Amino acid sequence: MSVSVRIPTILRTYTGGESEVSAEGDTLAAVLDDLDARYSGIKGRILDEAGALRRFVNVYVGNDDVRFLDDLATPTPDGVQISVIPAVAGG
Questions:
Q1: Which CATH class is domain 2-86?
Q2: How do residues 31-40 score in pLDDT, each as one tens digit?
């Protein structure tokens, strides 16, 4: 299953400056594995040492936050857009 992944500015050093890349996988976990195979190190910026999504990184499959779906087991249908969005804090 081919999907497109929107890459935030802070992670574009891993993708050679590309803001959107293609990846393969039928779940978010599989897509992240494929991304890391193509762009070494990027997965470690999205997942923590325990293999869970980092606290200040939000990931959307389509328009849905994966934390409210099946987290890393969230299905990624062919053609869907995945967005990686760093959380913004401030006041």
A1: alpha beta
A2: 999 999 999 9
